[in-house]
Amino acid sequence: MICRIRLVALTACTLLAGIAQAQTTGFAAAQARGELVVGVPYLAPPPAAGAKIRTPDGLDAQMADKLGQRLGLPVRLQQVPADQAAAALAAGQVDLVLADSAGAQPQTVAVQTTGYGARPKALIRSDTTMRKPADVRGRSVCMAEAATQARALAESWGAVVRTYRVPSDALVAVREGSCDIGLVDDAVWEPLVRFPEWKKFSSTLAADGARRERVWLLPAGDTAGRALLADEMRAWDRAGAWKAMTAKWARDVAFDVYLDQEVADCHG
């Protein structure tokens, strides 16, 4: 009987310690809810019924899932543009927001840098004559709808811009010859063109456009959450997390394209 009482008391102490730890490690609302809600700049429309699920643009989903794993929580993504982050955070609609720049945030919003930055980079057939952005005027340039920086850059070149629901749709258009150039983040370009089927699309343009760093936005009052995020970003950097995530993205998108192309590439 005494042993049983001790066991119950030990279990209760462990539970209370876990609750106390959750409250001191930040994101208390997420812990209480049992779910981490992360705002992202863009969510692609869901696929049609029965359609295959495709890899989204960028690393936002991977970053959110990795943080959720650290907190021991499932993740739900919600579309929140950076200029609406403060209102969404204040209303408790999201626990934190991912953005491609901090912008002009009020003092109620804290900014935590990630160390991950990228800018658009072109994927072109290796036999192309295009070498610099000026060569692209009037040519078709394709990218995912979420890639707003890539779209703005292509428009500045005078290109004919075409956007697609997900990156693989844009890259299929490039492979099949219905689009001259595809734009992806330069961080994922190299691991993508390492795949044998992408060797003949490994030409590119001279670098152009500004590099933007992904940042986390969260309530300024959540000091524990800010500290946890800062520690996590340092840990991710030490562990080579960005290289692992970009490699996974490239592998997943290459497979998406493979599945979407029902016949061999007709360009030979």
From TrEMBL:
Protein name as catalogued: Polar amino acid transport system substrate-binding protein
Signal peptide interval: 1-22
Gene3D superfamilies associated with the record: Periplasmic binding protein-like II
Native source species: Achromobacter marplatensis
Biological classification of the source: Bacteria, Pseudomonadati, Pseudomonadota, Betaproteobacteria, Burkholderiales
Pfam families in the record: SBP_bac_3
The Solute-binding protein family 3/N-terminal domain, residue ranges: 35-253
UniProt keywords, alphabetically: Signal
